[in-house]
Every structure is written in C-alpha cells, then in structure tokens.
Amino acid sequence: MKHEGYPQIYPLFPSEMVSRAAIVLLTGLLGMFYQGSQLPPPNRNNSPDGVPVSPRVKLRDGRYLAYREKGVPKDQAKHCIIIVHGFGSSKDMNFLAPQELIDELDIYILQYDRAGYGESDPNPKRSLKSEALDIEELADQLQMGSKFYVIGVSMGSYATWSCLNYIPNRLAGVAMIAPVINYQWPSFPESLIKEDYRRKFIKWTMWLANYFPRLLHWWITQKWLPSSSVVEKNPAFFNQRDIDILKIIPGFPMLTKDKLREQVVFDTLRDDWMVAFGNWEFDPLKLNNPFPHNRSLAHIWQGYEDKVVPSKIQRFVTEKLPWIQYHEVPDGGHLIVHYSGLCEDILKALLLGEENHSFRSRPQVSVS
Questions:
Q1: In this predicted structure, what is the pLDDT of residue 254?
Q2: How far is 272 from 280, CA to CA, in rounded Å?
Q3: Kind and range of the H or E element at 306?
Q4: Helix, strand or coil for residue 14?
Q5: Cα–Cα distance, 46 to 64 (Å, whole number)
Q6: Of 12, 125, 129, 367, whose CB is crowded by the most CB atoms within 10 A?
Q7: How far is CA 358 from the centre of its chain?
Q8: Which domains does the chain have, with CATH numbers?
Q9: How many Å apart are CA 123 and CA 64, to the nearest integer?
Q10: Nearby residues of 331 by Cβ (< 8 Å), 6 or more positions away
Q11: Which residues form the AB hydrolase-1 domain (predicted)?
C-alpha cells in the first residue's frame, strides 16, 4: 500500500522490496544530516609513511583526537571556539568566517575530528556524555581556559546539547546550525511529529542498524545501488539554494561506496547515527539556562526551507527554551553553514550580541 506523502518502503511485489528499500535507505543515510563540507577524502593514514599528519592529543582512555587550529594564538585570544562537525564530515569542514573578523575580535578556532572520524581513534563506547567529555578534555589539554564557546553543525549539534547538559559550567556560549532533531525527545507532543515521514524513516533505519548491521553494510555498498550523485542534488533533501551550493563544493567523500566498505568508516557512521537518534539520558527541552545573566549566549540557526530538519519543529524547541535565540533564514535549506556571510552573522550574534534582522523567527507553533 502506498500512503500519500510518505516514501513507499514496503512495495507490493517481493522482487521490488529489497531494491526499493535499499534505495530509500541509501538516499537517507547519504543525504540526511550531511553538511556538504569542503574537505579532502578522509584518510586516517594520509601521509606517505602511514603516520597521521595532523596534531593529536591523547585522552585519558588512550584514544587520540586529531585537531586543527586557526585564528589568533590561544594566549592572545579573547574568544576560544570549538566547532563540532556533522555526519560524514571532519575537522576540515569549511567554516566561512572572514579572516578580518577573526583578527578584529581576537578569535581562536579549534576544529577536531570526532571519535572515529578523520584521524581520530574510534570510541567503542560512544555516548552522549562521551561526546561532551571529549570536548572538555580536548579543551583542557590544549589549555583553552576555564570557559569556551561551542558551535555544533547539523548532527554534530547533539554533542552541543550534551555539553549544555553535562558541562554547562565550561561554556561561554553555544550556537547550533541546523541542529539535529530526535523524535524520541519526550517533550514533543504527538500532534507535532506524528505526520512527519522523517520520524518513520529514522525509526526504520535505527532498527536495521541495531539488529542487522551486516545486512545494512552489505546493502549500502552494493554496486547495483545508485551512486551518491543521485543524492547530492536531490530536491527531496535540498532546496534550490542548497543545490546551488552543492554545485561548487565537493560531494560526499566519506560516504562513497569505497569508503563505506571500510569497516571502521561504516562502524563510525552507524554508531554516530545510533547515539544521535537513540534514547537520550536527558530531555533537551527541559534544560536550564546556563547563561542566566546574558540572553545572547545561546543560539539556533535554521533554514525555513530545510527539508532534513523541519523548521516548524525547531521553532517549537526554542519556544520551550526561550533562553535560546532563534534565527531563521527565509530561503535557507539544510546547508546554511555554507551560505555567504552567514558564519559572520553567527559569530557576531554569539560574541557581540549583534542581530541581523533579516533572520527573524516566524509565528509560534500551534500545537493542539
């Protein structure tokens, strides 16, 4: 049976069931929560002698995290910022902050490979809390001071939510760009999310990833499945402005079939997905304001036309958390982090409290 407005996951004929389900799965895994980062194909051993080329720190549990720095030196910085990349990305994602602004505001920026990504070691015990503690330990080892800013991009924003819950005393401020929505958050009313096809899709992929990971791995690496190029400009996931952006930046280097055949790559993406959309130990919509004396230190940036993260649900989140400032890009899709001038606006709002009035929130969400 085909339902209006939903992908046909269970076709009538058995001969079509595997192929169509696999196509939906591949499209979703490659398209959802991807941030189109301008980065080379990830390679943990990308130097001629097989030794990682990026600086790394050793954590208490023996794992290494790779990182890159830009901006002014730490000892001269007035603002230290950690940027958390999204699904299938890395520390090499391009955060388009103007150098003039970085120099003017004395900003130090740290980007790192989350566990299992790029040149960082996998974490077989990845959890919401481990993501926050990785950030805290990385900041301590690099002597970033008692407080620092965190900017989470797309699915990397679940680590930012985790920081707000587990290490709020270490935060100078936070910003989330097209942040992930977990439909299992208990504060979501059923009437708000019941008709969202994304919810059903995520539930289905979680079931496959949890109970049939080998089958999932086999499916998404088969030659008869469509290539990632089918996804890159797919209007099911990206609006026109996103599609224009994808014409000038590289595609899905970590999500090619060759990379997905590597067990460590597949396991990293699977585990990341499972944590992001699994049962959280806390309800983000019930978090307390860690910045009670300054209302300009927590922000969410969202595209109104985002087809991956619904703007309607994002508005509901910030209505429940009035201490988070909501900025909506009227013609924005999911790849707003790559829109010209937006990273500058994000930094000015976070560090200076300046608001671009082009990004005003829309009317409140009515929930019956």
A1: 65
A2: 13
A3: none
A4: helix
A5: 16
A6: 129
A7: 24
A8: 1-363 (3.40.50.1820)
A9: 10
A10: 239, 241, 303, 304, 305
A11: 81-338
Q: Report the distance separating Cα 156 and Cα 88, nearest Å.
A: 10
Contact by Cβ (8 Å): 266, 217: yes
End-to-end CA distance of the chain: 29
Q: What distance in Å separates the CA atoms of residue 358 and residue 71, rounded to the nearest whole number?
A: 27
Pairing mode of beta strands 79-84, 56-58? unpaired
CB 305 within 8 A of CB 239: yes
3-state SS class at 368: coil
Tracing tokens 């999500």 back to the chain, one arrives at: 255
In what order do the strands lie in the sheet containing 148-153? Answer: 56-58, 64-71, 107-112, 79-84, 148-153, 171-177, 298-303, 325-329
> pTM value?
0.84
Question: CA-CA distance, 177 to 15, in Å (whole number)?
Answer: 41
Q: Show the DSSP H helices in the chain as ranges.
A: 14-31, 99-104, 128-141, 157-166, 190-193, 197-211, 213-220, 229-232, 240-246, 257-260, 263-277, 311-320, 342-352
Q: How many residues does the chain have?
A: 368
CA atoms of 179 and 153, how far apart (whole Å):
6
Residue pair 249/34 in contact (Cβ under 8 Å)? The answer is no
DSSP 307-341: SSS-HHHHHHHHHH-TTSEEEEETT--TTGGGSTT
Q: What pLDDT shows up at residue 234?
A: 60
* 91 vs 275: CA distance, rounded Å: 20
Span 225-250, pLDDT tens digits: 554 444 455 666 788 888 888 888 76
Query: What pLDDT digit, counting tens, does each position of 61-116 carry?
Result: 999 999 999 999 999 999 999 999 999 889 998 899 999 999 999 999 999 999 99
Q: What is the DSSP letter of 87?
A: B
Q: Which amino acid, residue 238?
A: F
Residue from 58, 54, 74, 50 nearest 66 by CA: 54
